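Quick one, probably user error.
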């Protein structure tokens, strides 16, 4: 199972965040990425050190013949087509597409990560290192792929959500709201 996370909080040439995310999903088949299932969209607060607008987030299960590194490059290419410019780590964005999991493959992260890592693309790390700590990923992931299991922890999205709630308390998922369209 290949799982992608989507997010946006700025208007792009393709429109408001939800419109841009829909258009990115529509574009994927022409680039060799078949969208098999997708979650609802969720409005989520920005969890960054910078003041910024709330995000629209979602998750999709896809199929692609591209190997993981090439798929990640394609996702970055799509981001660039939608005006993504990496100015500030964890800054506002017209679109963000993360490769969460690629058929259970484990590729440990290398190099610096987080605020001190600087700008630019990070090397491939699978599963995405932020999954267990991000309610804005786990909530739509539980909706679209409840059967998914974290390749290292062995837990599903609901179990990871419970762990997140236990670690961070009730506020862990505060502000995450399903968008009805």
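Nope, works fine. Designed sequence:
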């Amino acid at each position: 199972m290949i799982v992608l996370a989507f997010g946006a909080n700025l208007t792009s040439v393709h429109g408001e965040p939800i419109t841009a995310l829909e258009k990115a999903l529509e574009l994927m088949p022409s680039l060799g990425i078949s969208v098999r299932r997708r979650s609802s969209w969720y409005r989520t607060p920005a969890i960054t050190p910078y003041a910024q607008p709330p995000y629209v987030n979602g998750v999709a299960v896809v199929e692609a013949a591209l190997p993981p590194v090439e798929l990640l490059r394609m996702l970055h290419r799509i981001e660039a087509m939608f005006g993504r410019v990496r100015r500030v780590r964890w800054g506002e964005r017209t679109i963000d597409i993360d490769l969460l999991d690629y058929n259970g493959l484990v590729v440990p992260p290398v190099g610096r990560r987080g605020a001190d890592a600087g700008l630019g693309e990070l090397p491939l790390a699978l599963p995405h290192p932020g999954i267990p700590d991000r309610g804005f990923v786990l909530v739509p992931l539980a909706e679209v792929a409840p059967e998914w299991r974290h390749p290292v922890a062995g837990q599903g999205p609901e179990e990871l959500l419970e762990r997140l709630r236990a670690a961070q308390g009730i506020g862990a998922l505060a502000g995450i709201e399903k968008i009805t369209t």
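Residues 2-179 form a domain with the Alpha-Beta Plaits fold (CATH 3.30.70.560).
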